[in-house]
Amino acid sequence: MNLTLKLSPGFAVPFAEGSLVPCERLNRELEALFLEREKDEYRNPTPSHIPQAETFESRFNLFRWREACVQELRSFMLDSVARTVLDATTLSPEELARLRIHNHTWYHITRYAGSFVAHNHPLACWSAVYCVRAGETPPDQPGSGLLRFLDTRAGAGSYLDAGNRLLRTPFATGPREMRLEAGQIVVFPSYVMHEVSPFYGRDTRITVATNCWFG
Predict the structure, then answer these.
(1) For the segment 125-175, what is each residue's pLDDT rounded down to a tens digit?
(2) If you ran DSSP here, which 8-state letter would residue 40 be given?
(3) Which of 83, 155, 187, 200 could form a disulfide with 128 if both were Cys (CB 3.0 to 4.6 A apart)?
(4) Domain total in the chain
(5) CATH code for the domain of 126
(6) 46 within a domain of the structure (yes/no)
(7) What share of the chain is helix, strand, coil (3-state, %, to 5)?
């Protein structure tokens, strides 16, 4: 018997990763601005989670700020989302150019023991996270400050044995964990559940997040 099988991913989730090079000057300016505005007047007044003293979440209007560093970051992040849309969909550049990208964008400043619970963004189609400052990773806390994406396939790991426990990428089950570096961006579908593990650095972890929808 001559048997031929073709293996393919049946339910793939598109992730896009990139880096801003160089990023040092922009990140210094962003960090200084964000720390200066770590005040109640810039804090999100209606958080969707129980607020933590260790994590500051800004209002969702960041990309409306007029500062040059914010507008530079806006161009980079929204361009990254647009490029992801072109790569992941059948839209042509001309069709995409006729659409307007709407967004909610904010920043997080996380200090020792701060984290963020698992959540998604059901009122957007694409989300992105940019790392301004990665923060320290203590040697005894290798899981500190990880951005963790949860498996979208409900029940995928309900039964594991020697025949499926060692599935290779992109078929492996379980979460996808990322340790962001300064200047790194990741773009992903907004429906994906994600969280940030507790951060145990002695400094700060600073990220910018955006949710986008098109119309």
Answers:
(1) 999 999 999 999 999 999 999 999 999 998 998 999 999 999 998 999 999
(2) G
(3) 187
(4) 1
(5) 2.60.120.620
(6) no
(7) 20, 25, 55
